UniProtKB/TrEMBL annotation:
Domain Lysidine-tRNA(Ile) synthetase C-terminal: 370-441
PANTHER family: TRNA(ILE)-LYSIDINE SYNTHASE-RELATED
Xref: HAMAP family: tRNA_Ile_lys_synt
Pfam families registered for this protein in UniProt: ATP_bind_3, TilS_C
Subcellular location, record wording: Cytoplasm
Enzyme class: ligase
Organism superkingdom: Bacteria
Protein name in the entry: tRNA(Ile)-lysidine synthase
Listed EC numbers: 6.3.4.19
Membrane-spanning segments: none
Organism classification: Bacteria, Pseudomonadati, Bacteroidota, Cytophagia, Cytophagales
Keyword line: ATP-binding, Cytoplasm, Ligase, Nucleotide-binding, tRNA processing
GO molecular function per UniProt: ATP binding; tRNA(Ile)-lysidine synthase activity
Chain positions recorded as ATP binding sites: S27, G28, G29, V30, D31, S32
Originating organism: Spirosoma montaniterrae
Amino acid sequence: MLTDRFLGYINEQKLFAPTDCVLLAVSGGVDSVVMTDLFGAIHQPFAIAHVNFGLRGDESDADAVFVQNIADRYGVPFHLTRFDTATVAAERGISIQMAARELRYNWFTALLREHGYAWVATAHHQNDVFETLLLNLTRGTGLAGLHGILPRSGPVVRPLLFATRNDLAVYAQQTGLVHREDSSNAEDKYARNRIRHQVVPVLTDLNPGLLTDTLPRTVERLRAAEVLVQTELARSWHALVTKQNDAIFIPADALLTLPEPGFRLAEWLRPYGFGPEPVAQMLNALSRQSGQAFLSATHRITHERAGLLLEPLPVAADYELVLTEWPDTPIDVAGQFQLTVSCFDKPDDFRPPADAALACLDADRLTFPIIIRPWRQGDRFRPLGLSGTKLVSDLLNDLKISRSEREQTAVLLSGGDIAWVVGRRIGHRFRVTGETNRVCWLMKAD
């Protein structure tokens, strides 16, 4: 029975303890409804969380009511939130799917902290693993992308990966479980849906045992191969490099005698923020005169006579200034610089100045608390005039900002979004437009 397989998979993968209270992400579809029933069948403590993404009008609202009724039926805590996902995606310049994923998992993480749940469980299954593998192949991927979705990553567990979509549908039919149908799943405007509807049926027709036999064995081999590769990468890294205080030296001659030196170097340096292109440039530099330097957001690599020297960049002052209102006097930002703020009704003939030290923002789009802090690796925003988002590190590279200036660069955030990379570029959403009523004028002074 599916219940026995479910419990066996949980124990085999050591996903959670019998006393752990698990937060279930329940959409109301057949997969999450079956997962909820299986948790009840094995008497595992759980709560239910549902996200209304506001994308399907009354249908989304009906899903939320349906899932709340499920929670009431099982007598478990229920958590509900709603997001204007389309607006968030447009403002951040990302896809609706990416926005929904970020909003969803950020909220789940907050619920874990607030209520003390041990894990978040999602209802991903074998079909999802295969679809993800194919999707990653179309984008280009490594071993991690080929083995697809893991049973556990961080606080998220996926206890249905042993089952196919059909297994879950059969269980729902046999047990009389009622579920909701998401009408968007029938549309082919999303890449995953096109793969599900147009590609997977052709492949399963060629190999009827693809999802139940071939794929699980292949995924397991790929996961094993990744373990072997990562083990060899760690072994050869520790055997090759020498440490000099906070710096690491990679000898060129020893590196180039190893099989696949480019692959090794790329994998070794990825955690330090170096992508494939700079790594390829480093390899080419080894055959030329020394002295060339390569920078990531956190590290510098210098081509020395005998190899590559990896060093962390000096850490800028760490601070976080929280403003609940605009003060009347200049703001001292951790001794780094000062900000003068002036808010006023926008004149009819107002034109924002073209001075990088000034930021003219739509005052009504700014929400308190305002946070000012140093920029961090991974910070992303939509710069003025761009249709998509950009990493702050890429912006600073494009502007050819020196290392010392990068270390002093701050960001001003409103509602969690970057409104201004201070002294560099404002966020597109916060720009002054013809619809702006009030202007917030910020001036930086060192």
